[in-house]
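Reply to dn_fold:

You asked what the input looked like. This is it:
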Amino acid sequence: MPESSTPPRRRLLSTRERAASIRTAAAAVFARQGFAATTVDQVAAEAGVSKLIVYRHFNSKHELYLAILDHVRERLEQVATPRDPVDPADAQAAFRSAVAALTGTFAAARELPDEFRLLHRHAVHEPEFAAHVADLVNRNRQRIEGMLAEVPDPALRTWMARLVDRMVDEAFLEWLDVGDPARDAEMVERLALMLGGMVGALWRPLDHG
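and this is what came back:
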């Protein structure tokens, strides 16, 4: 018998799947051109749906942007992070702990690259969403300060927590832009080594002699 020329029927997406596909498409557009310059028509075109379909899932462009930020935040909050302070006497344990935390965080960034870019590169500069991002940043920095609890100088501890937080974000963003996914593990280890050198300097006395 001749084979049927009727193309296979496309599987209809569930409501949740469709919302996720729109969110992913919107993140790509927002990350390319920012919130103000993006229209719902552009999001619909990127997602391959009509504008009406977008509005069936999200009431406004603002709500869609917030949904993206909430989604990537929730994913990042699933990453297990060290609970104990760094022990300056056990560099190997500190390195292993850093690699584990960085690996989990970058896995989320690799899974949601445009959403990660939106959160850390764009939303912080959007007046309507900066406070939304600041909450996550502050909690990250408090967590890092907790890991540096053995640093006796509170000013140095706060300063280093901010540097580490910013360095990790920037390192991940740049690697998403130019890095080879096959070398993600190498990047994480190199970053952990750099951070270890920075943090280790907090315990070394300055020699002004």
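The chain has a mean pLDDT of 89.
Hope that clears it up.
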